[in-house]
Write a structure and sequence with these properties.
The chain has helices at residues 2-5, 7-15, 29-37, 46-51, 55-64, 80-85, 88-92, 97-109, 132-139, 143-151, 160-164, 172-179, 185-197, 201-209, 224-230, 235-243, 267-273, 277-285, 295-303, 307-316, 319-326, 328-337, 341-349, 373-379, 383-391, 406-415, 426-433, 448-457, and strands at 117-120, 128-131, 251-252, 265-266. It is globular. It is 51% helix and 3% strand. It has a two-stranded antiparallel sheet. Strands 3-4 form a two-stranded antiparallel sheet. The model has no long low-confidence stretch (mean pLDDT 94). It has 28 helices and four strands. The two termini are 47 Å apart.
Length: 459
């Protein structure tokens, strides 16, 4: 076994973040197992002591050799502070929280550099710099350690820190970063935009109250408002962005999750394409005219279930129907994902094929390539839209690009979805009533209602 050949190296690998990706992933089981089998590891080096947040052990080792504060070692060639900031114990074992801060203080007092870190070589052609402050604020999201590093001169404008610190709903470390005054405009813009990826109303509201400009373009060529609409954020988030001056008429350079080659679009156009009738109505109430050109006028009319406008546009510019049909799969999926059932009906009445494929898919929403609208509606628990699509002849046993049927996705939504509001069985029942095959669907655990539905239809 690897740990028998070099238990210290094996422990360090198990106790620190993976080198390639998923830095906030993993558990402590293996590290703890190795440590139990080889308890001497804890005192074997300053690197192991730093990983464990053993402040007494680190101070003892520093007394013997002050230069150990910056000495590189272990299988990764990291210094002690880097090991500490990227320790899985720091992220997962909160009982050690205070001792980690004391350990880091000891290292910094002995000469450790608050701007230390390591290069992730898998980022090519340019390796990514993973700083200690990123480990503290972006991986472990440890507010106290973040504060200490900033106080000792850490620069949080490294790209990774502002990108990852907003992940989740514990905003302690994020607030420390913002309140430090050390974040530049690019970093603040990134933090606000990334909060919309998490649909965090409270976090977004707090950031806006700190004076972050919602109209500043991010490095992705879009504002927080554009991103909130692309991510189907709730209306209250759109409202709070507008309360703080977000401008829906600004043009995003890359307003699509499925392609970086889309033409520039305003938030108004994005809202129409996402089927957000509620947002279009909000814009009008705020005195912002819904001014669109070409096929987007027709898309907006469908989104708003404005039959008269649809008929008028088609009568005057029938070629727009052809333009709409070219993008039918993406539009039908978008409308289905926000449960704009009336808008879906309008698209189908225009001639959109209920089997139209969303070829690109959308990783953010876990929509596989070559998904149909019914896959999207089932996964996102949009029950009314699922029923309409069934009524209009959608296949119910076809697999998406990941081999998942609508029924499998509806079941997964009930038991294995981050979005807890999806955990209702109406779509499961609708698909079963329509004849969806139970064979091959993984039965859920701990959801009696869905389990009973599946078993009652199992033949």
């Amino acid at each position: 076994m690897e740990e028998m050949l070099d238990p210290v190296a094996a422990f360090i690998e198990a106790a620190c973040v993976p080198l390639d990706s998923g830095h906030a992933s993993g558990a402590l089981d293996r590290a703890r197992s190795i440590l139990t089998a080889h308890p001497g590891i804890a005192n074997s080096s300053i690197h192991a002591a730093a990983i464990l947040g053993d402040d007494e052990g680190v101070r003892r080792l520093l007394e013997r050799d002050p230069a150990a504060a910056t000495a590189k070692g272990g299988p990764r060639g990291w210094d002690p502070l880097t090991h500490l900031c990227f320790s899985r114990y720091l992220r997962l074992d909160r009982a050690r929280s205070d001792s980690f801060v004391r350990t880091a203080t000891a290292l910094l007092d002995a000469g450790a550099n608050a701007n230390t870190g390591w290069f992730e070589m898998n980022h090519q052609p340019k390796p990514e710099w993973e700083s200690a402050i990123y480990g503290a604020a972006g991986v472990a999201q440890h507010a106290e350690l973040t504060h200490l590093l900033l106080e000792r001169g850490a620069d949080p404008n490294d790209g990774e820190t502002p990108y990852h610190a907003p992940e989740g709903y514990d905003n302690g470390a994020l607030k420390v970063l913002v309140e430090s005054g050390k974040l530049n405009e690019d970093s603040l813009t990134t933090i606000l935009l990334r909060k919309t990826d998490w649909h965090d109303y409270d976090g977004i509201k707090w950031l806006l109250e700190q004076g972050i400009d919602p109209n500043r373009m991010s490095r992705w060529g879009k504002t927080a408002l554009h991103n909130a609409l692309l991510g189907d954020n709730d209306l209250e988030i759109i409202e709070v962005l507008m309360d703080h001056g977000a401008d829906p008429t600004l043009i995003a350079r890359h307003p699509s999750r499925s392609s970086t080659e889309s033409p520039g679009r305003s938030a108004i156009a994005i809202a129409a394409r996402r089927g957000r009738s509620d947002v279009l109505e909000l814009f009008e109430k705020r005195g912002i005219p819904i001014v669109l050109e070409g096929v987007e006028r027709l898309i907006a009319a469908c989104a708003r279930n404005d039959t008269a406008a649809v008929r008028s546009i088609v009568g005057q510019e029938p070629q727009l129907v052809k333009e709409l049909l070219v993008q039918a799969g993406e539009l039908l999926a978008a409308f289905s994902g926000v449960e704009n059932t009336n808008g879906v009906r309008q698209l189908l009445d225009l001639g959109v094929n209920v089997e139209a494929l969303f070829k690109e898919g959308d990783g953010y929403f876990d929509v596989a390539p070559n998904s149909m609208a019914i896959h999207v509606a089932a996964w996102r628990a949009k029950h009314g839209t699922v029923k309409l699509l069934i009524e209009r002849g959608s296949p119910i046993d076809v697999s998406d690009g990941k081999g998942r049927t609508p029924l499998a996705l509806a079941v997964k939504a009930c038991v294995d979805s981050y979005w807890t509001e999806r955990r209702t069985p109406e779509s499961v029942e609708a698909l079963l009533r329509a004849g969806a095959r139970v064979s091959g669907v993984r039965f859920p655990s701990g959801y009696a209602e869905v389990d009973a539905l599946l078993r009652s239809y199992q033949c």
